[in-house]
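Section 3.1 - Work completed
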Amino acid sequence: MDLSQNMSTADRVVRGVVGIWLLAMAVGAALDRRNVVAAIAGIAGAGLLSNSLTGHCGGNALLGIDTSGSEP
């Protein structure tokens, strides 16, 4: 399995910001005892932050999308 970078810098920044926002929403939902919303937002936020930190998106890899600008 190839885990090379396949995301552009702009894509990584957007995913990082949205991931942090989703994690904050998850904390707020957990405090309001909306556990299902908290779990879904937390999982989605963690996934986006993981993509942002590694620069690799499994969905992009499956679809053959490479926005990083580097040659394969």
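Second construct:
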Amino acid sequence: MPVPSALVCIRCGARRPVDHYAEDCPACRAKGAPTNLTVAYDSRPGEGLKRDAPSGSARSMWRWDGFLHATASEAVTLGEGNTPLLAAPGLGLGDVWIKDESRNPTWSFKDRLAAGALTMARRFGAKVIASSSSGNAGAAAAAYAAKAGIPCVVFTFVGSAGPLLLQMRAYGAMVVTVADKADRWRLQSLGVRELGWYPTSPFFGPVVGSNPYGMEGYKTIAFEIAEAFDWQPPDWCVLPVCYGDALYGMWKGFEELKALGWIDRTPRFVAAEVSGSLPAALASGDPMPPEVARNAPSIATSIGAAQATVQALDVLRRSRGAAVTVGDDEMRRWVVTLAAREGIWPEASSAAPFAAIERLRAIGTIKPQERCVALLTAAGLKDPGPIETALPEPPLVTGGLPELLAALENSYGFAHG
């Protein structure tokens, strides 16, 4: 089994101790490009495993523990991972598949991050888990902290989706709401710096990304995709991106498979975001994505940050990828389309990859024959607001069959036989 030997700067390669999980790279921050750390191991992840039997018997992402920082037997797990990869021919986007992360225990991809982070929190003897979150990350941290038996404090802000706040509270988290978003990080930073709380989310700016051990969990998405396609990776992986944790984790996972010779290439990556920070950085060639202010908050609160990260930009450059800025109207349309045509109701941010694929197909960046996997990160019931404004109100019918048929036609355009 690989054993973590250091935390390494994604940008400059400087090595830090394995307990440096609450810090970024001080050298890169001094140079104006704050950068996250990633886990390095004492041996090549996956070394000695066979491709025809690559994983263990655990019924979770920890069946890939030969690539991870802990064994399945010591993992804090709720059965996350092993989510379906579904063909989506009804979308009219060509060869597109949906990796449906809404099937995880708390209904989002953040469960993989929480499992990876909480496993190490228990190993490090953490007394309190701390997360700053508009929803999914906080809910996952709360659930996995409950499983680990560690108290959890989640900092959120006024205007966060009600169902997500209820989810955090249901798992026993001590939820703290602030009026100014910046106060989330200020308060969490005090807990981490002064009291030794264990962070699973970003808590200082400019943001570099989340807990490095949590991000290792996202490698398993790449492993599952490659395995499902019989070790022939898709041409493109398209993700909704805020700080790029899953983007970097998936890229790292594919790179590890390539290093073992299990795949012969890695996919190109697309970041679908709402601010325009990554497209601006790709166009300028700058080492640090700029902050790009919006005129109004996006409906996709999960990816609503105004500034992207070096780790996200690094993946796009290394993979010869692309970034697309997606608008609210596009996301509403794709929320409705996915639900009506594929039977999958996504959170608004999870609709962003489909808008990006549509646009990149139209301009020829993604070729007609190329296969895409879209990462659907969370379920729509977590934040139902966007769907409420996109669909007509159900009609009230008080009469008999003629009135029923008239109502169906008037409200939904349905004409019976």
